[in-house]
Amino acid sequence: MLDEDRQKGKGKQTDEEEEDDNLAPKMCDLRLIDFAHSDWHSERQEQDPDLVKGFDNIIDILYQCLKIQRQEKL
Length: 74
What we know:
flat, IPK_sf
């Protein structure tokens, strides 16, 4: 959980959160996944399937963001 999420859970807004309330909504919220226990070895016949799935998912998400940007002319 991010610090920002923890702060929201406490029910008390910080000055930064109050400023965020006045901003336009985010187009997307990108969160990174820790791949510390994933590995990639070029000599393998098959790679870590979860790592490959993660790469495929982020590529799909980025394409979706680009599609929305084009549709809304952002």
